[in-house]
Each structure stands twice: as structure tokens, then as C-alpha cells.
Amino acid sequence: AQQRVDMELGLEQEQFVLLYQPVVDLATQRTTAVEALVRWQHPEDGLLSPYQFIATAEANGLIVPLGRWVLREACAQLARWRRETPAAAGLKVNVNLSARQFQYAGLVADVAAAIGDAGIPAGSLTLEITESMLMEDITGAIETLRALRALGVRLAIDDFGTGYSSLNYLKQLPVDIIKIDRTFVEQVDTDADDVALVDAVVALGQALRLQTVAEGIETEGQWMMLRQIGCDQGQGYLFGRPGDAASVPGLLIRE
Ligand code: G
Ligand code: G
Ligand code: MN
Ligand code: NA
Predict the structure, then answer these.
(1) CB-based contacts of 97: which residues, under 8 Å, 6+ apart?
(2) Which structural domain, as residue segments, surrounds residue 144?
(3) For position 116, which CATH number holds?
(4) Ligand number, closest to the Cα atom of 156
(5) What sign does the CA torsion over 77, 87, 151, 201 have?
(6) Is residue 134 part of a domain?
(7) What range does the record give for the signal peptide (predicted)?
(8) Can you tell me the distance from the alpha carbon of 74 to that of 62, in angstroms, rounded to the nearest whole number?
């Protein structure tokens, strides 16, 4: 209960911040997108990770206003980069949605307003959802995904491989991107089973015309293997840790 009051105050007083982690093209190492990752600069407890407050926000309902803030701030920040940095012209921004936010009836209107108010192209926003969020109510989920896609935003399945989506469902899902969970990437340079698994997911992505993104790349060896497998893009400490908004133009100019 205390965290709810704190969180409402935190939203009012703008205590939440977004960090941005680069998503790179695995062939060229160019940054194509950044994933927005929320933190709470708590007045007493310091910088809190989403693991310390997202579940509570889901439970007490504040995830909807918090998620709306994340969405609006990420879109507004992309607009700032686009105004200030010529190299940001094609940059995309990824925003994570939570389960309750995905089920919220006002989501599509919130997304439309965030894009419209920021004045960014709809195609420069990618929404990340997890398999488990989709599987709870597949018919309703497909409807929401269609409505979001009709706005022109792109959709990614996050943490792919850790949930329980059947191939039959995957085929029906109107999504654009599969993000391969980092548990499969961890040993992809040393474990033949993981190579086979990632290879199969990339082939699946190609068959369904979805882009593939590998998460959690920390070593050159993992990068090289993923490139060889044909994975399109990647994200991880090797390419960049989550950093503040001011760190992003440097990622674009580095090329
Ligand atoms: O950034 P970090 O690795 O600490 O993120 C931890 C978890 O929190 C990840 O699963 C990530 O997807 C999730 N997360 C980060 N930012 C957001 C956000 O803005 N909204 C939601 N729903 N989840 C987020
Ligand atoms: O669930 P989601 O994929 O959105 O989670 C993103 C989380 O993964 C963020 O909290 C981010 O800090 C973390 N992350 C990003 N890159 C790496 C990495 O290379 N290694 C590890 N261990 N975590 C990472
Ligand atoms: Mn994510
Ligand atoms: Na993920």
C-alpha cells in the first residue's frame, strides 16, 4: 500500500527515468533502434530496477499510468533526437508493455496519442510483448495486435522461447520481430544444442518473414556465431549497456 502512494507521488514528481539500450544490425554493428528501460529514482531508496516495482504496479493498477508515461516519454525523446541529430533520422524506439497494460481497453488510443503528440512516424515505434501475455487470451490478443498494427507501429515478441506459444499461434500473430531470449544466447558460442535452437528460431523467423533479434550478447564469440546463423540484429552489453538519453546520439555518430 505504501508503494502505491509512493508511486503515485513518484509519477507526479517525475521520479521515473528511462534508460536506452542500443539494438544493432549484426552485420554492420549500426544502431538501428534503442530499447527504453524504466528506472525509478526513489527519494529514499535510490535507483530502483523494474524488478523492484513493475510487479507491484501491475498488482495495484498503477502500471497503466506508469506505462503511459513510459510510452509518451520514449516517443517524445525519439522526437528530440530526430530534431537534434541528423543521424537519428531512421532510429527506432522499443517500448516494453506489461500484461495488464496490454489488456487495458485504452491502450490503442494511448499509443495513437503518444505517437501523434510526439509527431514521430508510427513505424519508428516498436512495442514489445511477451508470449505469456498473448497466450492468456489469444483471440483478444490478436485483435489488439491488429489494432496496434493498423496504427503503423511495429510489434515484437520479447523473451521468445521462454513462454509457451505454439507454432500454430505464432503463424497467426500479426507481429514483425522475434527477440530471442538471452538464455539461448548465453552459451551459443560453446553449446551445440543452443546453436541448433537459435538456428531453428532464426529459420522460423525467416519462414514467417519476421526479423530476428538476439538478446544478451556479451562476447565477440556469441556475436560471430549469431551472425553466422543469420540472426538479423542483436542487443547486449557487448554493444552497449542501457544509458541515459544523452548517450544515444554518440551511438549513432560512432559509425
Ligand atoms: O532494464 P532491466 O534489465 O533491469 O529490465 C528488467 C525487466 O523489466 C525486463 O524484463 C524488462 O523488459 C522490464 N522492463 C523494463 N522497462 C520496462 C517498462 O517500461 N515497462 C515494462 N512493462 N517492463 C519494463
Ligand atoms: O525482458 P527484456 O528483454 O525486456 O529485458 C531487458 C533486460 O535485459 C534489461 O534489464 C537489460 O538491462 C538486460 N540486459 C541487456 N543486455 C544484457 C546483457 O548483455 N546481459 C545481461 N545479463 N542482461 C542484459
Ligand atoms: Mn524487452
Ligand atoms: Na527480453
Answers:
(1) 67, 107, 127, 128, 129, 133
(2) 2-175
(3) 3.20.20.450
(4) 3
(5) negative
(6) yes
(7) none
(8) 18
Instruction: Establish how many alpha carbons lie within 13 A of residue 139's alpha carbon, considering only the half-sphere containing its beta carbon.
Output: 0
Angle between helices 138-151 and 107-118 (to 10 degrees): 20
pTM: 0.97
Query: Which ligand does the CA of 98 lie closest to?
Result: 1
Asked, for residue 235, whether it belongs to a domain, the answer is no
Distance between CA atoms of 34 and 234, rounded to whole angstroms? 11
Split into its structural domains, the chain has a count of 1
Q: What is the pLDDT of residues 44-90, one digit of tens each?
A: 999 999 999 999 999 999 999 999 999 999 999 999 999 999 999 99
| Ligand 1: nearest atom to the Cα of 101 | 22
Q: Nearest 10 degrees: CA dihedral of 233, 238, 241, 246?
A: -80
Q: Which atom of ligand 1 is nearest to the CA of 49?
A: 4
pLDDT in tens, 196-251: 999 999 999 999 999 999 999 999 999 999 999 999 999 999 999 999 999 999 99
| 72 belongs to a structural domain | yes
Q: Is residue 192 part of a domain?
A: no
